[in-house]
Amino acid sequence: MTTTTAPGRPPLVKSTPVLGPLRPFTGDVLPFLTRTRATYGDAFRLKMVNLELTCLMGPDAIALLQGDTGLRTSNSLHVLDGEMESRLPSMIDGPNRQLIRKSHHQFMNHSLESTRRVDIQNWLGEHTARWGPGVRIDVLSEAQTQTVDVLSRLLNGEPFPFSKRDLALVVHTMIWATFGHAPRAVLWNPAYQSVRKRMTAHLLDLVGKIRQDPDRVASTLVGHYLSFPPPPELGEWTDADLVSVPYGAYLAGFDTVASASSFLLFRLLSNPDALTQVRAEHDALSEDADGPVDPASQKYLRAAFLETVRINPPGSSVLRFAEEDFEFSGYQIRKGDELLVVIASDHLDEEFFPDPQRFDPTRFLQPGAAELRRHVNPFGSGIHRCTGAALGELIAVEMISNWVNHFDLELDLGRRGLTATARPFTQPSGLRARVVGRR
Asked: If we measure between CA atoms, which residue out of 84, 104, 102, 97 comes closest to residue 238?
């Protein structure tokens, strides 16, 4: 006769009392999670302040995300509904999510970038017109400004109409209130309330103008929604529902694309041989190009981007909640458990990436590279993968290509050097560059 024992809870990671492993989560958390996995396996629990999270890592964790069963994104997406005054955010997590995501994918693709490539280069040129010898650049701030402006023009049909400071206040307040366990009192901040109301009023006016202009209907993401049937429970897309669509153009790239771009520039300026390769490739492609070089054809630069987000992913993990009891890696996960699913589980795994902290874009240019790419997930995985991931990579590559092929830049890090910080996405802190001259 054999007996079976019900699987127990995943082990609790030893850490400092009360605070727990809080410090790694305010900086570059991926190395910490990778080391912890080596000690505890693919499932372990973390206690931080008043939170308990169960971390899931490895291929089975990614498969859970991709299977789209048993997990939900958050208990509080209705916060975004209320703050944006739209019913659309929670629908992206609801039964109509596949319909809505299909709409995004159909619009935000390589075709959109290719038809507007000359415009994109001109927009980037407007921002870099002031760059001259000796100008000192806050790389992350510049990347955020240029990324959001390009995305606003591409998706919303207008230059970015707010300040970067205002956008940071709104975006980060919403993220912390929805996903970051911040008290809802952060939404009472008068400065935030003032900016959000002004931003929402502008975007409501924008949606109304797009409705009345056939050209803008054809060329904007809002217009694309108007040609897409709404979920039955909505009946019709109201202006209030659609206001979250132009919001998305700002939310999408402000942290993730800009952070990835900033780290990419750091890697290129830190590795002169790689920068030389990027420029040689661009020069060769320019000879045959009828206009600006296609970012999709810059294979070495795209490999450098992939290697950058492998080492410094904008987000290494996503939060989910268990909708039912299930077993994972021999342990019991309970309904309602808050799960930290590490989408970057394999990024620093020596089995796939020998000497994993070494920057080597050629990893993704060798035979078998297609399989290797499947182990890199900078923008999520599965049904909730960022719908703008493909467009975001193209914009990041195009922007950094524009910078390094039009300017000679050098790092200007100061005494403290570069550090990674979580705000809440992983970003470079202290990254400055100086313009040496135009090329």
From this structure: 84
Longest dimension (CA), the chain: 81
What span, in angstroms and rounded, lies between the C-alpha atoms of 148 and 164? 9
Q: Where is average pLDDT lowest: 148-157, 173-182, 331-340, 389-398?
A: 173-182
Region of residue 20 (phi > 0: left; psi between -120 and 50: alpha; otherwise: beta): left
Structure confidence by residue, pLDDT tens digits, 293-320: 999 999 999 999 999 999 999 888 888 8
Instruction: Tokens 């996960």: give the residue.
Output: 333
**Strands, E assignment, 57-214:** 71-72, 136-138
Beta-bridge partners for 434: 136, 410
Please give the helix or strand (H or E) that residue 305 lies within, else none. helix 299-311
| Alpha-carbon span 154 to 151, nearest angstrom | 5
Q: Helices 139-151 and 117-128 meet at what angle, rounded to 10?
A: 140
Structure letter (DSSP) for residue 293: P
CA dihedral for 431, 435, 436, 439, sign (positive or negative): positive
CB 407 within 8 A of CB 383: no
Q: What domains can be seen in the chain, in order of their start residue?
A: 22-438 (1.10.630.10)
Contact of 276 with 236, CB cutoff 8 Å: no
Contact 104, 387 (CB under 8 A): yes
> Residue 320: phi, psi to the nearest 5?
-140, 165
Instruction: Say whether pTM exceeds 0.90.
Output: yes
Q: Residue 37, Cα to own-chain centre: how many angstroms? A: 24
